[in-house]
Every structure is written in C-alpha cells, then in structure tokens.
Amino acid sequence: MSDHVYKVIELAGSSAKSTDEAIRNAIERASQTLKHLDWFEVVETRGHIDGGKVAHYQVVLKVGFRLEDGK
Amino acid sequence: MSDHVYKVIELAGSSAKSTDEAIRNAIERASQTLKHLDWFEVVETRGHIDGGKVAHYQVVLKVGFRLEDGK
Amino acid sequence: MSDHVYKVIELAGSSAKSTDEAIRNAIERASQTLKHLDWFEVVETRGHIDGGKVAHYQVVLKVGFRLEDGK
Amino acid sequence: MSDHVYKVIELAGSSAKSTDEAIRNAIERASQTLKHLDWFEVVETRGHIDGGKVAHYQVVLKVGFRLEDGK
Amino acid sequence: MSDHVYKVIELAGSSAKSTDEAIRNAIERASQTLKHLDWFEVVETRGHIDGGKVAHYQVVLKVGFRLEDGK
Amino acid sequence: MSDHVYKVIELAGSSAKSTDEAIRNAIERASQTLKHLDWFEVVETRGHIDGGKVAHYQVVLKVGFRLEDGK
Amino acid sequence: MSDHVYKVIELAGSSAKSTDEAIRNAIERASQTLKHLDWFEVVETRGHIDGGKVAHYQVVLKVGFRLEDGK
Amino acid sequence: MSDHVYKVIELAGSSAKSTDEAIRNAIERASQTLKHLDWFEVVETRGHIDGGKVAHYQVVLKVGFRLEDGK
Amino acid sequence: MSDHVYKVIELAGSSAKSTDEAIRNAIERASQTLKHLDWFEVVETRGHIDGGKVAHYQVVLKVGFRLEDGK
Amino acid sequence: MSDHVYKVIELAGSSAKSTDEAIRNAIERASQTLKHLDWFEVVETRGHIDGGKVAHYQVVLKVGFRLEDGK
Amino acid sequence: MSDHVYKVIELAGSSAKSTDEAIRNAIERASQTLKHLDWFEVVETRGHIDGGKVAHYQVVLKVGFRLEDGK
Amino acid sequence: MSDHVYKVIELAGSSAKSTDEAIRNAIERASQTLKHLDWFEVVETRGHIDGGKVAHYQVVLKVGFRLEDGK
Questions:
Q1: Cβ–Cβ gap B29/C67 under 8 Å
Q2: Of residues L1, L7, L71, nearest to I11 (C-beta)
Q3: Dihedral, CA atoms, B65, B68, B71, C6, nearest 10 degrees?
Q4: What is the pLDDT of residues C4-56, one digit of tens each?
Q5: Rounded to a whole number, what is the largest CA-CA distance in chain G?
Q6: Which of chain F's residues have a Cβ under 8 Å away from the Cβ of H41?
Q7: Which of B42, C30, D54, K68 could be A45's S-S partner, Cβ–Cβ 3.0 to 4.6 Å?
Q8: C45 CB near a chain F CB, below 8 Å?
C-alpha cells in the first residue's frame, strides 16, 4: 500500500434478481470509467415493491480506487 | 408523490435458504393484508445456527406503504 | 422458526419505580391486544424530573411478535 | 405521565413547499385515525428532484400516542 | 483559528412556527449570556402535538463558542 | 412549552447498588445547583469490576433544564 | 428503475434565510453540471453564528443521479 | 494505567429477575476463567417474552480485562 | 434460556460466490473449534475488486455461543 | 469511585502541529478553570485546509470531571 | 460564506509513520487536482499489520471544497 | 484472500506519549500470542487526565487475524 491515496465514491446498483447482483452491477458499471477499483463496502440495502412483490433490490456501496500520482 | 403520506412498519422475515428469500417472505406476507406497499430497507441481518450450520437467515426490514386519504 | 414472519412495533412504557418495571408495563399492556409476543429490545431510556427527583422512568422498546398465516 | 404506555409509529409526509409542511402533513393525516397523538421526532429528511429542482421534501417521523387502557 | 479552544454546549429551542425559528430562538437566548458564539449543529428535531396538530417544533443544537484565554 | 429554551448537560452518576440508583444520584446531585430540571436521557451504561464482581454501576445521562429569561 | 446505476455525491449548500433554501441552493448548483439528478437526503444541518444571530444555515446533502450507460 | 494492554470481550448475561442481575451474572461467569476484569459497558438490552410477560432480561456487555505481560 | 451466559465473537468470512456463502463459511469454520453456536448478526458487508469485477465478498459477523458452566 | 457524580463537557482544541497536541491544548485550557479533570474521549477529528495543506487539526473531546459535594 | 456551495469527497490516505501524516498525504494529493479545499473530517482510522507491527496507518477523510459558480 | 476466515478481537492500548504509540503498543502485545495479524481499525480514542494534563492516551482497536484451517 506504501503511501498511495484512494478515493472513495458512493454508488447504488440495482437488480431484479438478487442483492449480490445489484452489487456486481454497480461495480461493473464503475469499472467502465474508473481504473484501479480496489474494494467496496455496503452502506445500505433497499428496494422497491410492485404488486406485493420485490421489484428491485437496490444496494448502496462505497467503492475505493487508487489515485495515480499527479493526476 | 404529490402530498401523500406513507406509513413505515418493521418486519422480520426468515428463510432457511438465503437472505434474499427472507426479504421476499416478509414482503409477500405483508402484501396479504396491506395495499400500496412501495419500498423496503434492510435494518438488520441475523440468523440462527444449529449443529454448526446456518439454520435460518432472518432479515429485519422497514417497509413503506401509502396511506389512502381519510382512512 | 421455520419461515415465520414477525412484526416489530415500538412502545414506550413508564414507571415511577424502576426501568425494569417500565419494560414490564409496556409488555403487559401490549399483551392485552397482541398474541405471540416473542422478544423485546430497549431502544432508549429516558425519564422526567420533578422537584429535583426522578418522577418517571420511560423506556422505549421494540417488541416482536409472530404473524399468523394469512391474517 | 403516571404509568401510561405509548405506541410509536413511523410516518413519511411530503410537501412540495417545505420540510415543516411535510411534517404537518404527516401529523394531520395520522390524526384522522389516531387519538392522543403526543410527540414526534424527525428520523430522516429526504426528497425528490425533478428538472434540476426540489420536487418534494419528504420527512420521515416517529410519532408517539398514548394507548388507552385495555384496548 | 490558531490554537483557540472552543466549548460546545447543547441547547433545545422551540417555536410554534418553524424549525428554523426554533434554531434562532435557541441561538439568541444563548447570546444573552455567552460571547463569541461561532457555529451550531442540529442534533435532533422533535416536537409536541396537540389536538392533532403540531403545537411546537423543538430543535436540539450543539453550539460552539470560543473560550477567552485564562478564563 | 411555548418558546422556552432548554440547556442540556451531561452527567455521570454511579452506585454500588443499581443502575436506577446511579441515575437518581446524578439527578439529585444536579438539583443541588440547578433549577427547573425537566428530563433526562441515558447515554451510556458502564461500570467497574473488582474481584470478579460489579463494584459500581455508572450511568451517563443527558439532563435538560429550562433557562429562565435573560439570565 | 430496471438495472440502472446511480452515483451519490455529497454537497453542502448554505443560505442566510432558511434550511430549505440551503437545500435548494445545493441542488440547483449541482444541476448546472450534472444531469438526471433524482433524489437527495439530508446528512447534517449546521450553521454559522455572527453577532449572536444565525448568519447562515448550512445543510449537507447526499444527492443521487443516474449514470448513463457506458460513460 | 502505565502502558498496559487490555482485551475487550463481548458477553450476554440473562436473568429472569432484572437487568442489573443479568449484568452481574455475565460478569461473575466471566470471572471464573479470566483474571484482572476491570470494566464493563452495556451494548444492548433485550429480552424474551412468554405468555405476555417478560421471561428473561438479556444484557449484552463489553468487558475489559488487563493482559499480563508476555502471555 | 434460564440464566445462561453467552460469549459473542466477531468473525469475517469470505466467498468468491455470494454474501450468503461468506456467512456460511465463517459459521462452519467457527464450528470446528466452538460448541453451542447459537446465533449470528451481520456487522458489515465488504469485498475486494479485481479487474473491475467482485473478486470476493467479505461479511463480518458477530456470533454468539453458550458458555458451559464453570469453564 | 464510590458514589461520586461527574460532569461531562465538550471542548474543541486545535493545533497546527498534530491531533495529539490539539487534545493537550483543550485539556490544558480546561484545567485553568476546572478542578478534578478525570478522563477524555475523542468525539470528532476535523481540520482546516489552507493553500492545499492542513492548516489546523481540530479535535472535539468530551471531558469528565468530578463534582464536589454540595456545589 | 454567503451562499456558496461545497462539494464533499471521501479520500483515504496512508503513511507508514503516523496518522497525522496519513491525513496530510491525502490532503496534499487532493490539492494537486482540486482548488479551494476548505476543511476535512476524519471518518475512519484503520491500518495494516505486517510481521506483528503496524505497517501502515490509513485514515479515511471527508474533504470539502468550494465549487466555483457555473462550473 | 480466497475463502479464509478471520477473527476480529478488540484491544485497548495505552501510551503516555501519543495515540499512534498506543496503537503500536496494542498491536505488538497481541503479536506475542497471535499469528497472522492482518489489519486494525480504531473504535475509540480516550484517555486519562492527571493534574490538568493528559496522563495517558488510550486507543481501543479491532484487530483482525487469519484463522488457520482446522484449528
């Protein structure tokens, strides 16, 4: 880890299928524009209900990624 | 959303299989007696252990539903 | 516990005598109208002061009870 | 306060105008069906955004009311 | 800010009109006896209900003020 | 409550006998120097152990009292 | 909501007039550079005091907005 | 205290009689196997309900004890 | 439950596959050395990211087990 | 500790040099006017930035001191 | 402060030497790309252990900076 | 990390000199009896005051270490 600096952002992913997939959806979307993604932490698990059933799971995450030097 | 008022109740669902199913069990039980269920939020994830294995996952949820006017 | 669903309500009991009695008062009042009360958890312990002395202890509880099927 | 028991429920009121009005809307809706409302406490202040402006303030409240004896 | 030391006190202001006025009432009352009031932070927003309407908003604040040297 | 302003202080009372007595000891000590004590709220319950037994219960409280005008 | 991903940022808006206006100021500033703003949540309400009066209310918000695909 | 190091463990004691006794039961059980118990802190107060009455109070504690050198 | 005393320990399990499996891995590892495991509670859900994908889910749990008498 | 009562106040100390010195500055300022200072607990660590560097560390503390009898 | 809007980001700095240096490292890295950095707040202090010794302190910070108009 | 399981314990280290040294003292004491120590997290920073000066800093840590298989 030497003296690297990390930035932590907050994302909310959703999935009609599972909380784990909601996490993966958020991470994979973030990896389209950010490099060096390193860890995540679940902040909140929520969801929407439609017709008396779970319509979507929504998971709010903190995601940490290493900043490159001088950028 | 105009000026609707929502009530938020707390439920605990359980499942021998998964945390996601424990959530679904609680929502589907609530929908037997309540209309207009709109969202949920996980408050706590717990469980019981039997014979050194997870016997049940138990998920405590807040569930919000819209109150109809004048009732 | 199989796949039962529990409802969790919040109550505040009070007693001039002790915090333990304030808990008992809330539970016993709830049992007049609810069946299958199963557990409680203390959320907050407060009280009122009168003439420089504790007038009442007030304990806010979450109380869980099992929902019967289809009701 | 003697040895009364209070029930605490959670409500979310909304208003296009202000957070204070969102609180009043929730309280006044609750008073249509519940007697002896006594206090409230703000749990969360949220809202929705539409077209880059606040569309609605939404305030989640705990509301306490006294239970009558034997009911 | 150099090496000043601040004291932080907790106050509860109330107002029949608005949460913002409840904050102002607490600050202005504190300024009658304390100098160098510098910042505040809302700890809790509560209130009392009478006749099914908000009777008073009550806002609990932390208020910081700079201590003068050697006093 | 009209527009009164309250100050909230934090006290820790202790007792070799019970947590309730630790609360009473703190309130009664505070009432020797402060008027208009109105409510308390338990912040933390701790204690010391000596020889494998509870030596003292220690309860940390917030205590609110009404400020008189202009003082 | 299908499987959209949201980013959540944290902003602090201020206003000399009211907490509600501090929220609106932060949202409207954010909408100058971000599209698809969807919801906000109040994290903290603070302020500065000058001459014994509230000089500015400052409200810290989390603001969520939908990420477009592949950007 | 010089430069001693303490270990903090978490215990749950129960009692059919009172929360204070539940604390004492946990401490006295811990003292059968651990030396140098020094302080405790209440983490959670819960309980079980049977037949509409409190069957057991259960108190979760953190308990700190001094580690001897080199063990 | 009579007057049993429970010890609560904290474990972190991980799994490349799911959060539920991370929980099961931690419980089953604990059951190799501890008897009378009774309940668990999720404290934190985290994970590591590698190549823009979730590499491991990691779940931190509190796990409670009954202490036998006099040991 | 017998049945002493402690008062807990909140202070914010600052230092251009270190967080530890910010703590010492607050304690030493408090000891100019208060006797029997006994313990402290860090509530918050903040600071100000000037020209892209830490200008001051600011540490908010709770400080406990024993009240003398009858004062 | 007039009606400025601030953005708050989260960073994790690390240092083999001290927690204070971990804070400085994060702030100085952020100042390479952001102007008007104004304050920070410590969210979490963690670290890694190697060979039974602290290898790195890691401090997670919220850092606030003023947004310029219309950007 | 594959599917390792970690145990998390809580320790309080102290030092008359600095909070960083209090952390190091706790870690180094733990490494006398535990292998595979991997990370720590600060839970609480406290201390004792003697003669109006900081006598000891005390830092409460969670410390995680990898469990070996089958032990």
A1: yes
A2: L7
A3: -20
A4: 999 999 999 999 999 999 999 999 999 999 999 999 999 999 999 999 999 99
A5: 52
A6: 44-47
A7: B42
A8: yes
